[in-house]
């Protein structure tokens, strides 16, 4: 039996892969951030992303390149990929919103919804569930929301000021933008030609109650690969999962 929302689930996506990755040096001296390999997998971050998107029903991806674009393009051309990939290169900085709009113009189905993900996110959860959530709420844009663990230990106190417990790396009490999105077709036209949609388009949609937030399911794997420490932690988590 077909799910009532199955027809409205995206089959196309944009991956934003143009970042400099300066905090990941020296790994990013000769490659863009999404081309950094997760230790122990032999596969760059973008390889994991494309496999995940394919598993979730995506057939066409537009990869927006910038910093060292030719390294990423060469890998994409020489790798057996599970879906069709087109690359676009920003010849001048357009900002995050402008870059997204530039890439979205190359999607094969402009009249259908689409996913987008930042090129440094390594995650696994049901995009199909997120797409259904987006449709049910009649949203123009839906953001995945993560509750990352704090890098510090936390202290619990009682009302009198006595310390009652120490908690190692507790989850944040705030949800953050997890860098994975579902967009309705009309979202593309709301993006700026240049600039940051997170400061313009998203706040406007939030005021209009047309922006939704999909909390990542309990236990879903999510990590933003920003620093060398994130790479080490990702490798450790991967090793513990495969035991």
TrEMBL record:
Pfam families the record matches = NTP_transferase
Taking every annotated instance into account, which residue ranges of this chain make up the domain Nucleotidyl transferase? Answer: 13-240
Which keywords accompany this UniProt record?
A: Transferase
Q: Which InterPro entries match?
A: Mannose-1P_guanyltransferase, NTP_transferase_dom, Nucleotide-diphossugar_trans
Q: Name one GO molecular function term.
A: transferase activity
PANTHER family for this protein = SUGAR-1-PHOSPHATE GUANYL TRANSFERASE
The name on file for this protein is Nucleotidyl transferase
């Amino acid at each position: 039996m077909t799910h009532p929302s199955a027809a409205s689930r995206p089959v196309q996506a944009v991956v934003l892969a143009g970042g400099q990755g300066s905090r990941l040096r020296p790994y990013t001296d000769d490659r863009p951030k999404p081309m950094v390999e997760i230790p122990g997998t032999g596969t760059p971050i973008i390889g994991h992303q494309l496999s995940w998107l394919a598993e979730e029903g995506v057939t066409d991806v537009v990869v927006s390149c910038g910093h060292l674009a030719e390294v990423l393009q060469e890998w994409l051309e020489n790798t057996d990929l599970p879906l069709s990939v087109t690359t676009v290169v920003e010849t001048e900085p357009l900002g995050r919103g402008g870059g997204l709009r530039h890439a979205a113009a190359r999607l094969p189905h402009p009249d259908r919804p689409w996913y987008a993900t930042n090129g440094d996110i390594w995650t696994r959860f049901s995009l199909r569930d997120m797409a259904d959530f987006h449709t049910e709420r009649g949203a123009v844009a839906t953001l995945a929301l993560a509750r990352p663990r704090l890098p510090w230990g936390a202290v619990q106190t009682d009302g009198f000021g006595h310390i009652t417990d120490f908690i190692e790396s507790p989850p944040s009490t705030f949800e953050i933008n997890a860098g994975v999105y579902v967009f309705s077709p009309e979202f593309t036209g709301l993006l700026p030609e240049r600039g940051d949609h997170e400061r313009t388009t998203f706040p406007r949609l939030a005021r209009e109650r047309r922006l939704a937030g999909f909390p990542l399911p309990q236990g879903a794997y999510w990590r933003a690969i920003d620093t060398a420490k994130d790479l080490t932690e990702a490798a450790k988590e991967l090793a513990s999962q495969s035991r």
